[in-house]
Amino acid sequence: MDEDILELFRVLGAGRLGAKIYCTLLSSGQMTLSRLSEETGIVAPQLYQYLKRLETLGLIEVSRGKPNLYRAVSPDVLEAVYKERLERVGKRALEKLRSMPRRVQADERSYGVFVLRSWRSFRARVLEEIKSANYDILMCGDSAFMKGYWDELEEKEKKGANVYVILYEVPGIPLDEKAVRVSKVRRAVSGDIMAILDSKVALVAQRRIGPRDVPEYGLVVEEPVLVDYLEHEFFHRWLRGEVLRDSPLRLPSVFTVHRLAALE
């Protein structure tokens, strides 16, 4: 059976046999318990238990009679059930995880370079760091990458953070100047995907060569020497870039990137 279908039913708590039963009813139409047992090869007592589970989840409909008839709900209904369950269970689980006490050892340091193998997690990590930044936010990337961050960057700039963005084009991803929402933006020929926040942490991924090209991994850099080096690299790209927006700073302003402060 398709692994994506199996994963969906695992999340719903119906498992492999639940997926098999649902798919059989979906493809063959309504059935009695005995006929369904013949089609699936699942013995009647076990099949009955899974049918009760699927009925409780709202994934099948039952017509009571002698014998009972079972049929699958449509995939659209299954989608609604899946989303509701995922949201409900996810919300409870995340509340518990966020309230979980965290023990910090006396010698624990946040210095180092950490690898993220998920592009989705890397993007979420960038947004998390943007939200926690207070002073300087340096961003470099293509328009598709930046699309998910303009709202938060604009909000941060309104609150007094200094936001600098370098945009570059990727084949198949044109530079979208209309989407720009902050005061300091320049165009560069190329560059890696980068976010540097308050001179404390940098997130870096290899540049993309096309719209479907996704970096295999990203780096979370918390080593001060390396963060400073990446700021230096950003600064030189900034000096060489073509100005797209350059509005005056709102004063007073606090910088952690002293090169940019001197430039302003």
TrEMBL record:
SUPFAM superfamilies: Winged helix' DNA-binding domain. Residues 7-87 form the HTH arsR-type domain. GO terms for molecular function: DNA-binding transcription factor activity. It comes from the Archaea. Belongs to the transcriptional regulator TrmB family. PANTHER family: HTH-TYPE TRANSCRIPTIONAL REGULATOR TRMBL2. This is ArsR family transcriptional regulator.
